């Protein structure tokens, strides 16, 4: 059911001040004020923005019809005047586009693409179906209220080729060890919702970082249990935990993860500033990473961009 992993991913071009970011709205509609504040942050970083004229369209709980959202996303990838793409918001709806977007066409135009939460499904699609590095990071609407570290790490990830080394803040060692593998990153709920589809995540020999928001502890338990029963973690190399905001205390989440996955004999490390609350660090998805509980770090050994 899974697409075969690419042995060598296309690395998008490193961005620079003056480059143009296209804004995509592949999921839910969003607050115009939050969008404007986030847009101002991007302009202050030196980026020009292309905002599709119908980006504020609504179709119930979606930012326009599936066909329109998919078409806009494809246009942003094919437009030579667009240097990178950032999602306006997560929410819900990106999964509905997976059968409507053309992997081969996107692969011909690799560009830095950034988003998180519901956008998890597109990050996985871009890395495994299109063979290109993508970036787990803030959306336009979350950048507006993001802290300075979120802004600085977003800009650095997209405009420099320096390999990223991210310390847990502070580290919480659930299971000690050191492992390397292809890096996957995203929302636990979205990864779980892809089970049983042709787009089911492939965590074979991977370092996986998961985060979530607003899920009761028993739901975290249920998702991890379901994914384990489905074989998702059979050959997992290592597990990193981002923020689990409004999901119970870190202690409770750690207890659940240890109970469900602690016998896998892999490094499991919590405390990474990635997710819906606090700093949301921008990280490259699809390239090799090393998770080391002794140093309390997640490190990428090579550049994510050309």
Automatic annotation (TrEMBL):
Keywords of the record: Carboxypeptidase, Hydrolase, Protease, Serine protease
Domain LD-carboxypeptidase C-terminal per the UniProt entry, residue ranges: 180-290
Active site: 117 (nucleophile), 211 (charge relay system), 276 (charge relay system)
GO molecular function, one term: carboxypeptidase activity
CDD domains on file: Peptidase_S66
A Gene Ontology BP annotation from the UniProt entry: proteolysis
Protein origin, superkingdom: Bacteria
Record domain LD-carboxypeptidase N-terminal: where: 22-137
Family of the protein in this entry: Belongs to the peptidase S66 family.
Protein name, as recorded: Peptidase S66
Organism, scientific name: Desulfosarcina ovata subsp. sediminis
């Amino acid at each position: 059911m899974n697409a075969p992993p690419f042995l060598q991913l296309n690395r998008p071009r490193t961005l620079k001040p003056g480059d143009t970011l296209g804004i995509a709205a592949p999921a839910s509609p969003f607050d115009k004020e939050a969008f404007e504040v986030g847009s101002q942050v991007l302009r202050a970083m030196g980026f020009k923005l292309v905002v599709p004229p119908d980006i504020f369209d609504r179709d119930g709980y979606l930012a326009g019809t599936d066909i329109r959202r998919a078409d806009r996303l494809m246009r942003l990838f094919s437009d030579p005047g667009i240097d990178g793409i950032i999602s306006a918001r997560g929410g819900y709806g990106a999964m509905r586009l997976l059968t409507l977007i053309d992997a081969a066409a996107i692969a011909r135009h690799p560009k830095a693409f950034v988003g998180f939460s519901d956008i998890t499904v597109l990050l996985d699609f871009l890395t495994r179906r299109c063979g290109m590095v993508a970036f787990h990071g803030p959306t336009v609407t979350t950048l507006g209220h993001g802290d300075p570290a979120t802004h600085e790490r977003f800009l650095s990830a997209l405009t420099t080729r320096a390999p990223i080394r991210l310390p847990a803040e502070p580290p919480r060692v659930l299971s000690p060890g050191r492992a390397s593998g292809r890096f996957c990153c995203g929302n636990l709920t979205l990864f779980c919702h892809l089970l049983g589809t042709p787009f089911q995540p492939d965590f074979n020999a991977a370092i996986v970082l998961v985060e979530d928001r607003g899920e009761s502890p028993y739901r975290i338990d249920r998702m991890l249990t379901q994914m384990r029963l489905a074989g998702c973690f059979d050959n997992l190399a290592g597990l990193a935990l981002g923020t689990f905001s409004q999901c119970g205390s870190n202690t409770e989440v750690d207890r659940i993860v240890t109970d469900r996955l602690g016998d896998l004999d892999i490094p499991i490390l919590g405390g990474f500033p990635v997710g819906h609350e606090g700093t949301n660090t921008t990280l490259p998805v699809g390239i090799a990473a090393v998770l080391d509980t002794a140093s309390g770090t997640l490190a990428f050994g090579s550049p994510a961009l050309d």
